[in-house]
Known about the structure:
The chain has 88 residues and is an alpha+beta fold. It has three helices and three strands; from the N terminus they run αβββαα. Helix content is 48%, strand content 14%. The mean pLDDT is 89.
Amino acid sequence: MTAPATVEQETATQFISMFLASYDLPFQILSPTPYPGKIGLRLDPEDQYCLVDAVRFCDWVRQRHPSLEQLRAALDKKRQVKYGREGK
Length: 88
């Protein structure tokens, strides 16, 4: 069962999608998810999805304008905290 998306979440998801498109990556966004306010995000098809708060992640992207390396590092760090292991 998936949680219904709010207008804020949908808007944030669209912004994130436009931002990631500038990197010319085969990224994927999973929305909606079973977790309210969360979207699944991965930069490459081989990566595991990383759950992020759509609105907060959108704000972070808008404020920081992260490089691709910074973006990968942030998602990898979040995966390690969530899953307690390295990599994918």
